[in-house]
Design brief:
Helix content is 46%, strand content 14%. By secondary structure, the protein is of the alpha/beta class. The protein has a domain of 119 residues: Glutaredoxin.
Length: 171
């Protein structure tokens, strides 16, 4: 009976490890997409999600190596960053919402995505322990992190009120 339990445990662990691993071709394609997205991002109004790696994050968002103690946002527009993984079910549900937000806020807010499996250093810098985790970055001020998946309307409310600073007035 103990042998069966050990075998089952080994199979479960093996499945978990293999689910977390991506093949090199997927990572190369991701890096290629990052390069294309970064070129498009310089226009500041592409209406698409921009994929970041650690290097592009340091160049476009915050260079945590140069300023480890102080948040210095490098972007020209406010931003939202979705920290995700390809194998994550809730992340897959958030992905189309981020695509829609990129279109809805085209020219006002840049929507970024960071693959936590491919960018472990970056994930560690922000202490990402739960995915999806979404960082909201206003143009001025410090960012705020929200772990867990939310509904589209909740993301929109945070973008409007926190990221863009559009406070609702009571009538």
């Amino acid at each position: 009976m103990k042998k069966i339990g050990i075998i089952i445990l080994a199979v479960i662990i093996n499945l978990g490890i293999s689910a977390c691993n991506s093949n090199a071709a997927e990572k190369d394609a991701s890096n290629e997409n990052t390069d294309k997205s970064l070129k498009a991002e310089t226009n500041s109004s592409i209406g698409e999600v921009v994929y970041l790696n650690e290097e592009s994050f340091r160049n476009l968002v915050w260079n945590y190596n140069e300023n480890p103690q102080e948040w210095v946002y490098k972007g020209e527009l406010p931003a939202v960053i979705d920290f995700y993984a390809d194998w994550c079910g809730p992340c897959k549900r958030v992905a189309p919402i981020m695509d829609k937000l990129a279109q809805d806020y085209n020219g006002k807010v840049i929507i970024y995505k960071v693959d936590t499996d491919a960018n472990r250093e970056l994930s560690a810098v922000f202490g990402i322990r739960s995915i999806p985790s979404v960082m909201f970055i206003p143009k001025n001020g410090k960012p705020a992190m929200q772990p867990g998946a939310m509904q589209e309307e909740q993301y929109k409310q945070i973008i409007e009120e926190f990221v863009l600073g559009n406070k609702k007035t009571e009538e």
